[in-house]
Specification:
This protein is mainly alpha-helical. The protein has 7 helices and 2 strands; from the N terminus they run H-H-H-E-E-H-H-H-H. Helix 1 packs across helix 2 and helix 1 crosses helix 7.
Length: 143
């Protein structure tokens, strides 16, 4: 359902969220190494997230990427929409362009239910909700 780029973006934001208490910023190399992603992909993703105001960046010797307390409480759907767009929650499970309730693919009804539940989860889960299990060692962003 989500693109690899979007999954990378979510992991990068969660990583930045894990640094909010210390107030430290992170660079592209650090983030890419921690989430096991290419620096090129992480760089492009971070640029988009800054442009969409999901995260912030600061240039200079003490610069890097970071999130604010307000961004810490934003829903995960903001990341998904910034990277994959709103239409990701309307796409056909088989990738058909004409799939609809009137012209369904073989998995339309089942996939729609899963897709709608996933959208609801993305609307309800906040960045802080995803960060907490990582900080507690109960969840991981790599591997």
């Amino acid at each position: 359902m989500l693109s690899l780029t979007c999954k990378t973006a979510i992991k990068a934001v969660i990583y930045l969220a894990s640094k909010i208490e210390t107030g430290t910023k992170a660079g592209i190399k650090e983030i890419a190494a921690y989430i096991d992603a290419s620096e090129h992909t992480v760089g492009k993703v971070l640029q988009t997230l800054v442009k969409e105001k999901v995260i912030n960046s600061q240039k200079g010797p003490s610069g890097g990427f970071y999130i604010t307390p307000k961004q810490f409480t934003q829903p995960i759907i903001k990341i998904v929409v910034a990277i994959d767009g709103k239409d990701v929650f309307n796409q056909c499970g088989l990738g058909l362009t004409q799939c609809s309730a009137q012209h369904p693919c073989p998995m339309h009804d089942d996939y729609k239910a899963v897709r709608d539940q996933f959208k609801k989860m993305c609307q309800q889960k906040k960045v802080q909700d995803m960060c907490q299990p990582v900080n507690n060692g109960m969840a991981y962003l790599f591997g």
